[in-house]
Structure formats: structure tokens, C-alpha cells
Amino acid sequence: MYLSALLTSAGINIAISVVLLSLYSILRKQPSNVNVYFGQRLAQERSKDHGHFSFDRFVPSPSWMVKAWETSEQELLASGGLDAVVFLRMIVFSIRIFSIAAFICIFLVLPLNYFGKEMQHKLIPSESLEVFTIGNVKEGSKWVWAHCLALYIISGSACVLLYSEYKSITIMRMAYITGSPLSPSHFTVLVRGIPWSLEESYSDSVKKFFSNYHASGYLSHQVVYHSGTVHKLMNNAAEMYKVFKCTSDERHCRPSLTSCGLCGGPTHSFKILSSELGTPEGRGDFSDMNARENECAAALVFFRTRYAALVASEILQSPNPMLWVTQLAPEPPDIYWKNLHIPYRQLWIRRIATLLAAIVFMFFFLLPVTFTQGLLHVEQLQKRFPFMRGILEKKFVIQVVTGYLPSVILMIFLYTVPPIMYLLSTVEGPVSRSDRKKSACCKVLYFIIWNVFFVNVFSGTVMNNLLLISKPRDLPTQLAIAVPLQGALFMTYVMTSGWASLSSELMQPVGLLCTFFNRVILRNKEFSYGPLSFPYHTEIPRVLLFGLIGFTCSILVPLVLPLLLVYYFLAYLVYRNQILNVYIAKYESGGQLWPVMHNTTIFSLVLTQIIVSGVFGMKHSAVALGFTVPLIIITLLFNEYCRKRFRPVFENNAAQVLMEMDRQDEQSGRMEEIHKQLRSAYCQFASLSQEGQDSRKDDMQLNHCGDGDGDGLKDPEAINLGSIGEQSRETFHLESGR
Length: 738
Fold this sequence. Notes:
single chain; mainly alpha; 4 strands
């Protein structure tokens, strides 16, 4: 590919981004789009006011960028939670490390690559991109040491920045744990694999087991019921409530739909019923039903102290590891009730099946990747499509086909990946929504690293000759040959999938279309789009993939670094704006996605060092190659240190911290209050009721690549508008024409 084709692709993507950003700055000011661009919290306030006409509403303005830039981290933490802050920290880390890499590689490595061979250079736009890569450096060149020095600077800077971020985020996670003293999950243990008994129910078995073996810490328990039974109870309770409301003479004696014997509330809520109704069998007393047939082999066990719950969750309860399996329960908004009924013995089968399905889909995706690779070679297209030979001979068409079209086609196919991986992660059987999203994030990450990076790199070289299997020692050399050749595709992919996708993220096209269709076509003025939670399983893999491209191409193809910096700077503003105004933190994992980001970054560093070592071997530079091997070992040792020093904090709660919290609560007398709140906190009845109300939003969120949880907030009327931050409220009031 020539530089002119790259410039054509850059021009197209810049034009698209500018148009979409301008449209966004106008559309966000329109009162009808508040539900799309300011989330459910501001939509409830805004729906009461239709606004007034203002000319400023139709003029593009960069004010949203200023608001996003000025927002403090504390406001982001209050609005999006620790997960959002951790995600933004990864973007900040990328900006820092690639700023250092761009400075070193543009001013030191790029000139050495360009003048690496004695040749007659053309005008810059007419130059082939290969002259800007390390492939243009002649063998035995004495300037290869500069590439080795740049590699050391980039690797050292990355390790220092990673350590700083890991340490800072670990402190934030500890503050997150200690800052939520009334967290029910600290006192609750999820028990699965409860053995079946002919003599007693699951509930009796749980009570007998924990009263016997955890007598000092056991408080109470709550058995999980099949969701179909709970839905039936919900329907019966709703019907009885309507009848009761119309016939009861005592208006103050109203039944509550949010409390039931199932979840620890009063079991007599629906027993006050006139005999004239003739429906005593319809009352909502769960104890009157055959409870044993509706129980699952899972239960939530509540303990008196956090330490007792921690000990019970960590130790082996039975000589048979498949029985009485315990773990700390997720937070109430985070728990995924539909998967709790899955037998524990069935989980490993589900995991193997979903793994095989993901691998099959991964290899099936080779077809569009191979087709995309074919578009990079005009000669092959002219042979396969002779009728297009005349069109493909035009210069502008060649620039568009080779510089823009391949990345667009690849990006379109990649849009199908997150929903499929999210579905597989659901089938896998996670018990929390955050674990499901984390699993989907890892699946999407592995998928795009394989198909976008390795398959594109290996196509035509390693894949065809099966060198990966026959000569694994030649892998660094083959990567060293192939990566510079695919540098043009990576640069166009960064512009198309990076710049344009960020503009699309701002625009929220799905929300706009849904709002327009319902309000303009269907005349449904009460339609409200959202709320959505942040799609970490789509955005984190994209950010990490660009990081992999940046590290591996920094020494080999330095021209990719300025394009990446543009993406990360724009991503910093866009994601801050979206977290403040669009997405709602429905649940929190406490920053557990950071180890995934850290490990992927280390993998990218080590892969870069391996590829560069292959380059040094090709250039016959034994000294540079000798210095690269210790760098790989040092990077791996650094990762092992971080894994031992910080990783356990993200996997387990510290006993010392929990015991200190227990002592403080006992001294202050709050422990009894916490015990009273435990059973009502995990209310399967209310959670499934809310899921039933929001189930219609699932498809929209999955198509939008959101989480599709349908697990909206417990009390929409009690949403705190202050949590979204003063700046986003100011944006709402001033720019929506209010």
C-alpha cells in the first residue's frame, strides 16, 4: 500500500468523525433526545418540561468535551463506579505509554527506517509504506542498536506505569471494600450442590448442616427457588392485590409486593381476604405450597460476622468437592438468579461446551478475514473479477479499495462477535452479572486478538506453510517478516474501528432510531429509552487490541503511533462523557477487570519483545538480540511480582480488614441492624419482578452491544440525581434548551 492510500483512508475517517461529532453536539441539545444522551436519571426530571426553542440548540459546540475534561475522578466514581474509573485508568495508561513511544520512535526509529537502505526516494505521498518500516533497514546495519534502545525505553516505561496503576487501583479497591460497611455480600455465602435427601427438604438440610458445623457464625438462610415458580407467585400476588384493593374495607392494610415469606418478609401479607371472594387457595402464602418440589439445590446462608462468612466460603465443606460448594455471594443487584438453579455438577459440561462453541466460531470467522486480506492486493482482485478491471485501474478507486474498504468490512463482521460471546457467557452459568460480563469480555478479547491480529499477520505466510507446527523455532522470524507487511491494515483498522466507532458511540444510533420510531411514527410520547449499563465486554477488548497493535508496531511500523494517540485522546473524552451522562452503574465488581487489562498488556509487551528479537536475528545483529532476551525475562519476572503482590486482593477479601469492620460494627451497635437487613436484601421475588418488567429492553441492549441484563434499578423514583455530578446536570440544563 502506498502512503496516498493511507491518507485517503485518514481523510474519509476524519470527515466521518467530524460530521458525527457535530451531529452529536446538536442532537444532545434537543429535548426529545434527553433519554438517549442523559440516561434515565435526567430523563425523569426532563420529561416534565418540554423545553423552549433556542437557536443555540442547532449550532455545533465542543462544550461537552470541556465538561468531560474538567470532571474529577470522584465524580466519575460516584456516577459510574470503580469499574468505570478502572477502565478510564487503562486509557490514561495507554495515552502515557504511547506518548513516550511516539516521541522515541518518530524522532529516533522512523528516520533510521526511512534511510535504512541506499535508494532513490520518491515524493512522500507516492512512497510505499514499507520504506517507513523496519523492513527497510539493511542487514548488518550498525543502527539496529537504536531500535534495541527504544525497545528498552518502551518496556521500562510500561512496567513502571503498570506498577503505579496496579498499586493505585489496589488501594481504590480496598477503599471500595471498607467504604461499604453495610454490604450484604460480606455476610452472605452462596451454597450450591446441596445433597438431595428423601427425609428432609433442601431448606432443612441447609439449616441442619450449618447449625451443626458453623453453629457460632450461622444466622439464617434463604433457599433459592425455581424462577418459574416465583413468576407464578408474582402473577398470583398481583391479581390478589387488585382484588384486595377493590374489596378491602381497611385501606391502611395494604399488602406489599416487595415482601414475602420467600425472602424473609411477613408470610401473612395476603391472608387478609374476604371469604366472599371464594379464593382462599389463591393467597400468596408460600408455606401452603409444596415447597420441596420448587426448591433448588442452592441457598444463600447468612452469617453473624463477615469473618465467619469468609471462613465458610473458603474452606472445603465436605470430603466430596462437588457437594456443599461455597463462595461469597455477589451483591444483591449483581446476583443472576436465573443461573442459580443450574446443578453444580452441570457447570463443567457447560464450560467445555461454550469453549468449544467459541473456538468453532473463531475458526469460522477466518472466512471474512481471508476475504478482507484479498482486498489489499489489487492484482488478485483483477484476476478474480475481470469485469471490474477497468474500475480497479482508477487511482482513487484503488486508494479506497486498498486503504479503506478492508477495515470497514472487517469491522462490520466484528459487530456480530460481542452478542454471540455474551450469549455463550450466559449459557456458561455464572452466578453474577459482573462475572458474566467479565467472561464475555475475555472471550471477545481472545477472539479479536486471534482474528484481527494473528490471522491477519499469518495469512499468506505461516498459515499456508504450516510453519507454526513444523518449525516453531521460526515463529519469531515469521512474525518479524509478517507484522511490518500488515502495518498498513492495522493503521486503517485503527482509524476505521477506532475513530469512527467512537463517533458512533457518542451518537447512540440504536437509541436515536428507537426514540424516533416510537415518538414520531408510533406517536408514543411516553416512550423512554434506557437505562443501559456500560458495555465493558465490547470496549475493553477494543482498547486492549489497539494496545497490542501499538506495542508490536511501535518499533516495526512507527507511523501507527500518532493514529493511536488520536484514538486514545478522543476515547478519553468520549468515555468520560458517556459514563457521566448515558450509562448507569447497575452493579459493581470492584475493579476486578483490571487484572485482565494488566495481563493483556504484559502479553503485548512480551510478544513485542519476541517479534523484535526475530527482527534482530534477521538483521544479523547478535548484540541487539543478546540484549533482548534478558528484557523478556525481566518483564515476566515483573508480571510474576505483580501477580503475587496485588492479584490476591482482587480475588479474595482480607480477613484482617473484615475483622476490623466487624469490631467497629459491634462496638457501635450496628450489627443487629445489619442482621435485620440481610434477608430482605436478597429478595428473589422482587428481583425477578423487576427483570420481568425490563425484559423487553434486553434485545435493544444486546443489539447495542450493551449488557442486556434487564436488571434495572430497584426504585426508579428514588434515583439520586446528584450522583451524576454537577457538571453533567449543568450540561443538561444549559444545552438541552431547558
